[in-house]
Amino acid sequence: MVHAHPDDEVFATGAAVIALSDAGWRVVLRVATGGEASEDAGLGEAEARRVRGEKLSQSCALLGIAEWGWLGEAGEWVDRGGAGAGSVAAAESAILVQAVRRALVDVRPELVLSVGRDGLTGHPDHVAIGTAVREATDGTALGARLRAADVVAGREAVEKLAGRPVGSGRVVGAGDDVALEEIRAGGEKESAGQESVGVESAGRESGHSAEQRRRQALDVYRPGLGTAPIEELLTGRLGDSVLLRAVLDVAGWNKDLFERL
Fold first, then answer.
1. Residue ranges of the domains in the chain?
2. Which of 2, 44, 86, 206 has CA atoms 20 to 30 A from the CA of 186?
3. What are phi and psi of 138, to 5 degrees?
4. CB 105 within 8 A of CB 136
5. What is the CATH number of domain 2-146+177-226+256-260?
């Protein structure tokens, strides 16, 4: 699994990771940045990266990710919140592709998960990572996508509550004309009209459902982001994380949709 930032493993591929892990797969994550822009700017980049890394470790434990490491070196790319200097989006594409290929040689995965052609959310770092994975894997990876109808429904629901726009405006989703495959956790059957890649999980013996684990993993990054009533999240800046929470409430927490990269 290859992602741009810590928390992408939850938003983009959380259900798939749980399904694969519960089915006996060893799931490994490579992340390009430390998600520095999501922490207090007063910490400085190095400390923000350390704090975010600790949160990522907690998220991995909840989702069933056996190991995570950097795509490249720690601090080689930094989360600038967009396409600023030193970001993944500003990196030379050939360098990103080489980094992904080195990770593939190191891990030797049977399956590679990342984000789709639109980066799931349209974030420039996400788009760059999805493109690099597609080029490095020659069409054998899966890229996470959202359905446009779910994005519209989630946005309408949360903006009705907030009384103002929510999100960056970059989250669009795929239309019904785009073929997507489903990975579902929790042992439930795939929805009608949706293809499945053939991985389902029965859930852990602990009794914690896939939905509970994914929600708890989001809480690691921002208290309540996964488990609190969404009304309690509608203060301050309302970015894509709140919108994605609303989309998951609509689309379901136990499944992820993918396109072939």
1. 2-146+177-226+256-260
2. 2
3. 55, 45
4. no
5. 3.40.50.10320
The amino acid sitting at 133 is V
Whole-angstrom Cα distance, residue 112 to residue 94? 19
Please, are residues 15 and 44 in contact by the beta-carbon 8 Å criterion?
no
pTM: 0.91
Over residues 123-178, the pLDDT tens digits come to 999 999 999 999 999 878 999 999 999 999 999 999 999 999 999 999 999 999 99
Q: Read off the amino acid at residue 91.
A: A
Q: Using an 8 Å Cβ cutoff, are 183 and 15 in contact?
A: yes
Q: What angle do CA 91, 96, 102 make, to 5 degrees?
A: 150
Rounded to 5 degrees, φ, ψ at 121 are -120, 0
Tell me 147's DSSP state. B
